[in-house]
Design the sequence.
């Protein structure tokens, strides 16, 4: 399903659609900024991982004085006693040659973690749409009620003129005009209440979307037509969590592989590598070092089991979500079926009430019934119309909520 919108009023006022509200909250809500920030953070973390492929260079210097040194029991010609004060400055270079693909695995895992975190943001933003629906259809219902009250007010104002004429010629009691004026004042109060409630809800919608809306904004009545199925963001989130666990397991496997490094050291010191030479000498050492932990006492296997359990937990969360989603969908579809029947009855009631009001109007003109009795029928008709508009908005809200539940 996708949404198309038909404005219910064609004034030269600011118009707003439900889809625009969705887009505004996704664009402007503070949480939406996290998506880009998470990607930026991931890029820097992966860059840091890749830097570990480069040679590591350390500069070291030390000066020591020892309480004792190696000595010889007899004097050897050409060999001086070793000095107790020793000096050394070195440059140490370490270059990773092989670590089982851990850097690439960690970089891939980091990308998966970022996607999962970004999807969590999408889930949170998607959940805001239900609040958008609440405010949007609340305002839409107030619009409809205000429109009906204005129509009722126009009808009564026209009747005031008729009653004034009837009072003038003695066909209608003078109190009839006062009864109509009192009802008109009551309508004015009801419109005032609606305006204040409308202001509050528009302000709530403005704050949620971080967009300033005019108080006389006209909301569009959404209608729905079929579109291709879209998966709920929560389902994508659970799938990404599972992918992240699979990649974590992959890093555990690669962590058991041997690691090979090349190293080199160049320096200048007294003594150098020849401990029997008491002069400052340059020196260097190069080599290759391998490390392989052949026994971890089952830690890797235990970590793998922990990840499998975590995956099972995610599976239960996904299953629970789908079950609750299915129940919500059934409830909403039941409400929609109820609304369909109520709307059919509403149309029938309005037709009957219009006939009754037409009869009451004629009877009031002929003095058969009082103005109060006529007002009862006017109220009954507009209550029936109000019921119709309420059910129409509730039906539209139910359809919009069904679309959210289905992830469309």
Sequence:
């Amino acid at each position: 399903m996708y949404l198309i919108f038909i404005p219910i009023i064609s004034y030269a006022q600011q118009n707003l659609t439900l889809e625009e509200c969705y887009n505004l909250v996704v664009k402007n809500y503070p949480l939406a900024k996290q998506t880009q920030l998470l990607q930026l953070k991931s890029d820097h973390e992966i860059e840091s991982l890749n830097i570990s492929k480069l040679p590591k260079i350390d500069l070291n210097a030390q000066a020591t004085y020892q309480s004792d040194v190696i000595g010889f029991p007899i004097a050897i010609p050409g060999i001086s006693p070793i000095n107790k004060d020793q000096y050394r400055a070195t440059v140490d270079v370490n270059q990773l040659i092989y670590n089982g693909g851990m850097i690439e695995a960690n970089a891939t895992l980091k990308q998966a973690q970022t996607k999962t975190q970004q999807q969590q943001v999408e889930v949170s933003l998607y959940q805001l749409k239900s609040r958008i629906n609440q405010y949007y259809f609340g305002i839409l219902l107030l619009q409809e009620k205000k429109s009906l009250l204005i129509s009722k007010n126009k009808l009564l104002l026209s009747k005031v003129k008729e009653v004034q004429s009837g009072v003038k010629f003695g066909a209608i009691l003078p109190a009839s005009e006062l009864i109509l004026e009192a009802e008109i004042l009551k309508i004015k109060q009801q419109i005032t209440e609606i305006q204040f409630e409308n202001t509050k809800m528009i302000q709530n919608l403005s704050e949620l979307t971080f967009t300033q809306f005019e108080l006389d904004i006209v909301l569009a009545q959404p209608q729905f037509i079929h579109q291709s199925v879209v998966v709920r963001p929560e389902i994508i989130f659970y799938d990404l969590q599972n992918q992240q666990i699979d990649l974590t397991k992959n890093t555990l496997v690669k962590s058991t592989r041997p690691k090979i490094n090349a190293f080199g050291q160049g320096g200048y010191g007294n003594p150098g590598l020849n401990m029997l030479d008491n002069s400052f000498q340059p020196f260097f050492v190069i080599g290759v070092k391998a490390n392989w932990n052949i026994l971890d006492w089952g830690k890797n296997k235990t970590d793998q089991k922990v990840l499998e359990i975590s995956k099972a937990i995610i599976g239960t969360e996904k299953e629970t979500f789908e079950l609750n989603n299915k129940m919500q969908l059934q409830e909403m579809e039941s409400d929609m079926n109820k609304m369909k029947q109520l709307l059919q009855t509403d149309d029938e009631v309005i037709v009957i009430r219009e006939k009754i009001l037409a009869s009451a109007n004629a009877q009031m003109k002929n003095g058969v019934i009082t103005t109060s009795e006529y007002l009862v029928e006017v109220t009954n008709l507009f209550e029936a119309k109000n019921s119709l508009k309420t059910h129409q908005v509730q039906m539209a809200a139910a359809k919009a909520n069904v679309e959210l539940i289905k992830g469309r």
